[in-house]
Amino acid sequence: MTATLRDTVSRAVCDAIQPGAVELCDAIEELLPGAGDGPGSVERIKPDVCRLRAGSDGRERSFVLKRFDPWQARRAELVARRWLPAFGLGDRCPQLLATAADRRGQWTWHVYQDLGDGGIDPVHPDRGQVEAVVDLIAELHTRAAGHALLPECRRYCGDLGAPFFAAAVRDAIATLEALAPPRLDPTPEQRAVVDRLLARLYRLRHELPQRLWTLAALGGPETMLHADLRCTDAFVVATPDGQAARLGDWDRAAMGPPSYDIATFLYRFPRPERPWILEAYARAVGRAGWRLPPARDLNAMFETAECSRYVNRVIWPAVAVLEEQAAWGFEELAEVTRWFDALEPALPN
User: Fold this and answer.
1) Which residues contact 175 (CB under 8 A, 6 or more apart)?
2) Which DSSP symbol is given to 349?
């Protein structure tokens, strides 16, 4: 790597107060020997994600640089280099080209193939593109279910099924109940936010037996989940064999029921679009012999999946308030309250 390109990468990393610049530059130097005399360019996409453009002989290449904590990095690496290839889906995620850990062991950088900024438009979805992505989601679920590597996936990724939901409800209630005198003296407004959330969580605790039974009886086989299916992470790209779907950002991959992924994806779209998207998924998994339960039961499982995400988001702001008196924690809790208030059935009755 030329000194100018090294300076560009180092400056981008250091400006964000993210260690590991030297190690990241060394990894890029191995990936791009003789990268040319130009400085290249680094575009910040998120606080922990950059796009690097560099090249030689007039041919520019683009990469995505992403920073993880070591545990997330190991999970994402196993997804790209071990688990998806074992499921026959190794080409359906961005290629992991290089890794670099900072010397203190706090962070790990990944260098990925850049799939661009396309994504799927949830407001005006292209039916063909969405169906291609849905087919890929269905392939992931049906191919991973029952696979011999699932115990290894669970070890590194955890589980987002019934045990996760029950534990999240219990932990969220415990942390919120602690936000009270004598340990803490919230303002009336803050107390109102906590009380509204607790009322919601007490109701979920009361509903736990029925919700857990529904997941166990109707949720289908446990499988590997992407677990964060946002439209910005779903791509349809041109290949020599035609259009093919890709999914990025696998650092939250986990085990659990297929309904967790389906709910995440459906809730990204306007309600009128959801029935045909679900029907496309039903057709795709039907080729593997799977059958989906009725819409009423699906709605119940989809709501449980959304609630489990919301409940989990209660815990960490509450812990930050307890341990650090972080004012932003109450703002986060108020935001989660608004999510609960806006939650609607995923499918029309």
Assistant:
1) 314, 315, 318, 319, 322
2) -
Q: What architecture is domain 3-113?
A: 2-Layer Sandwich (3.30)
Tokens 């279910």, located at residue: 145
Q: Quick count: other Cβ atoms within 10 Å of Cβ 199?
A: 10
> pLDDT tens for residues 178-230?
999 888 889 999 999 999 999 999 999 999 999 999 999 999 999 999 999 99
CATH fold for domain 127-342: Aminoglycoside 3'-phosphotransferase; Chain: A, domain 2 (3.90.1200)
Q: How confident is the model at residue 5 (pLDDT cuts 50, 70, 90)?
A: low
| Encoded tokens for 21 | 């610049």
Summarize the confidence of residues 240-264 as an average pLDDT.
Answer: 92
Tokens (6 digits) for 36: 């040319």
Tokens for 121? 């438009």
- Least reliable range by pLDDT among 14-23, 64-73, 147-156, 198-207: 14-23
Query: Two tokens at 231?
Result: 């439209």
Q: What is the DSSP string of 111-150?
A: EEE---S----SSS--HHHHHHHHHHHHHHHHHHTT-TTH
Burial of 59 (0-12, 13-18, 19+ CB in 10 A): exposed
User: According to CATH, where is 3.30.200 located in the chain?
Assistant: 3-113
